[in-house]
Every structure is written in C-alpha cells, then in structure tokens.
Amino acid sequence: MKTIASFYIAFIICNTILFSQDSLVEIKNNNDFSFEIRYATTTNFIGEKLYDCEICLLKPQVAEALKEANKYFNQKGYRIKLYDCYRPLDIQKKMWKKVPRPTYVANPYTKGSVHNCGAAIDLTLETLEGCFVDMGTDYDYFGVEAHIDYNNFSEEIIANRNLLSNGLRKFGFQTIRTEWWHFSYKKNKSYPILNSPLPCEN
Ligand SMILES: [Zn+2]
Q1: 76 CA distance to ligand 1 centroid (A)?
Q2: Ligand 1 centre and the CA of 140: distance in Å?
C-alpha cells in the first residue's frame, strides 16, 4: 500500500509540473490590442488556415511584458497589432514542410521556434484610431526589405521601425535580423517547447 501511495503522490507531482510548464495565458481580444492572427486565415505564406481561431497565448511573464509595452505605445498614440503568439510544434512542422529554410522558419526537429514556447510574438503597430502604420513590407515577407538592417526606406518608415523595436526592447524583447515583426522575450531559455493545440471552441 505504501508503495502505491508513493507512486500516486509522485504521479500527482509530475502532473502538476507538466501542467505548470504548459500554462499559457491568453491576451484578451478586446480594444487594448488589435488582432490579425494571420495563421487563422489563408492570408499567410502557407496559403492555408493553420489555426482554428484567432487566439494569442503566451507565458505569463511574456504576456505581462507585452501589456506594459502596449501601454508605452498607447501613450505615443499607437497600439500593438498581433500577428502570431504561441504556435504549437505540429504547426511548426507544417510550416517547415512548406519552407525548409532556417533563415525564415525555425527547424521543428532541432531547437524549434521561440513561438513554440509561448515566448515570441509577431506584431506591428497601428494608431489608436486603427490606421495603418507603414513598416516597409508586409508581415512574413521573405526578402531583404524585411531585415531590420535594411534602410533604403523613407524617413517615416525608418522612424516607425525604430519606434517599434526600441519600444519593445525597453520591455525585455529582442529582435532578429531577418524579420522586423518578430520579438522574442529574452528570458526564454528555460521555457520548454510545447505542442498543446490552441484551445478553440468548435
Ligand atoms: Zn516570429
């Protein structure tokens, strides 16, 4: 009996740990943030709907940092528009099958993407009135014009990009060279890769 009880307690503890690793919080789809979750539509580089609903899930610490960054942009007359947040590993595999180029899609069979941990966000800005803010290229544009060190743009576009990246860096996010829209929360090293499906209601 004692052995069974020990096993049962160990089972509960392990499950608790697994659950806490998996815990992601939702950024509510209200007026605080603008939502344009592209993988919930066919307007993306795959050309297929990959998500069953528009939802943004993140690790709690990442969500808090993102909310603080959004308040910062609000004071300047902007709000964050979300393109992608947590991405299940199985979706990463679908993307890799279509575009097996590590410059643009993280390899799901090696390290995976920081999106798979719920610690990266693809985003842009819009004004508080909902007007478009020009960043020079569309989201998921695979070319040099999307690189953060490409500067053959108007002063306005360069200022918009600087506003975005400098603002997010203040709240613990890092850029990557090839995608102006991608921000990884810098303290993500201990976060595990996840593959829980998005909790969409049928
Ligand atoms: Zn990204």
Answers
A1: 24
A2: 9
